[in-house]
Amino acid sequence: MTAHTDPIPFDAGFAQDLHARYAQLRAAGPVHRLVNESGLPVWVVTRYDDARALLADPRLGKDAQTIFRLVMDRFAPGAERPDPSESEDGRFAGGGFDMHMLNMDPPDHSRLRKLVVKAFTARRIESLRPRIERISEELLTAMAGESEVDILDAFAFPLPIRVICELLGVDESRRDDFRRWTNQLLDDLDAEASVQAVGEMSKYLTELLAAKRENPGDDLLTALIEVSEDEDRLSESELISMVFLLLVAGHETTVNLIGNGILALLTNPDQFAALRANPDLVDGAVEEMLRFDGPLMHTTFRFTTEPITIGGTEIPAGEFVWAGLAAANRDPERFPDADSFDISRDTQGHLAFGHGIHFCLGAPLARMEAQIALRGLVAHFPDLTLATSAEELGRRNSSLIHGLRALPVRPAS
Ligand code: HEM
Q1: In testing the pocket of ligand 1, which one of 100, 166, 219, 253 has its CB within 8 Å of the most ligand atoms?
Q2: 246 lies in which domain range?
Q3: For this UniProt entry, what is the primary localization, expressed as one broad class (predicted)?
Q4: How many whole angstroms separate alpha carbon 4 and alpha carbon 394?
Q5: Where residue 269 sits, what CATH number does that domain have?
């Protein structure tokens, strides 16, 4: 059985109305064929059990070379392909920062993940706590006295980028550049801006690595260089791609977890009141924010290496697939009363950080940041309210990130 023969456009309208669209699809069937704004067809899996199984299924691949080839086959069949033997690692994908673990299958993925896990330890993450608290306090204090402020701009954006720069050991003066680059890379779909961002970032990261080799610091970048030199197994392009991945994967996601989470609190005053009355509910609140309105609509692309059947629908080999994370997390079969925001509910098993071998490496850091941010926010601004009606808030025009364009609030009522 094929769920839909004509692909459904995954366009800006879809992004604006994500949960309602996903709810319709989930009710209509477990798998749907969409077409993204570049015209690329992709199957989306909408139900919790199927999405979880898909993410642990070794018949789905992620390696960038195959993805690149499949895209070329669709858009430029017969065009000349780059020769992998001419690249530094004997591999070639689409250029830029492609040599990272989210673009790889085992055994390459396992090798890179093992290396970064050695550097990105629980102790290193925990050691960031006082700095994150200080940054959060600084930003919240600066908001006091304002009658109205865009809390994305004043708080949700600057916090994660400053934390990532601390983590990596990036100079404070380059923070704004980093923010611009990650924005240009993720916001659809200005190819020219993203090529420019890749060029500028590449130049900066190369310089930064050279500087860290000269002057090692107590930061993740230095640790990654050390790990790669000890084991002699991380090439320069893998190292640069890894840093790029940490930056891009760790920034906009955390921003929009905080942003969407604040919106959920402000539009569910009983839940806000419960958190205010008992700030120790914050850990559960963050998990519910991830489930209810997490920052990713779906996973990154996977492709089928052989035909696979999901919920009675066969997806042929060589097709792109997304696990619809936001759809799975609101599947009423898994989460009763899934469309209601309840910070005390059992959220165990939500898929906001993915599942399987590519499960988010930064989840402990993201959780810690969001918990600190929300605890601080509730303490500083117990009377926080929206400065506009929730219906007027627009969503970002991205096909991956589920976030708000702005979130105007009144810090004190
Ligand atoms: C992978 C979500 C924050 C680093 C992933 C994946 C998801 C995800 C869903 C898997 C994607 C897929 O399978 O296609 C999130 C969310 C975050 C967040 C919701 C914040 C709320 C972070 C942070 C970092 C980070 C702060 C690092 C500083 C990574 C890396 C991977 C990854 C390195 C790739 C892991 C691999 O391929 O093995 N993330 N992420 N993420 N994330 Fe996160």
Answers
A1: 253
A2: 8-77+91-412
A3: cytoplasm
A4: 29
A5: 1.10.630.10
